[in-house]
Amino acid sequence: MESEIDGQMVRYLLAERSVLVQKGFWMREIRRLCVNGHQTSLLTSRQDLAEVELAYRMFSRWRQENFFRYMRHHFALDALANYEAEPADSQRLVPNPQKR
Helix, strand or coil for residue 67? Predict the structure, then answer.
């Protein structure tokens, strides 16, 4: 399946089926087949989006999650944030963006 999403062409080999999760509660299972034969399954309750749109959103999200995982491991991203309050530096000069 091929479609233009966010200004770029995306192409996935997709299959879809409905899955009964509980009595009266149906979900969509969308499977993506990669060129190496690997299949990735997505399970969603969204009925209003096309299969290719859902696949694009999921794989874009994984890119973001992998980026933050990389940043946490290599740059100690979690160590940059803390929950302590610091007093503001009264001597710090902050430029006025309107006068820049």
Answer: helix
Whole-number CA gyration radius for the chain: 22
pLDDT digits (tens, 9 = 90+) for 37-83: 999 999 999 999 999 999 988 888 878 888 888 888 888 777 777 77
SS3 15: strand
Q: What is the rounded distance in angstroms from the CA atom of residue 12 to the CA atom of residue 60?
A: 13
How far apart (Å, rounded) are the C-alpha atoms in residues 51 and 43?
11
Q: Which residues pair with 29 in a beta bridge?
A: 17, 43
Q: Token digits for 70?
A: 């990389």
Q: Which segments of the chain are extended strands (E)?
A: 2-5, 8-11, 13-22, 25-33, 39-44
Alpha-carbon distance 34 to 40, whole Å?
A: 8
Structure tokens, 21: 């999760």
CB atoms within 10 A of CB 70: 11
Please state, in angstroms and rounded to a whole number, the distance separating the CA atoms of residues 35 and 5: 21
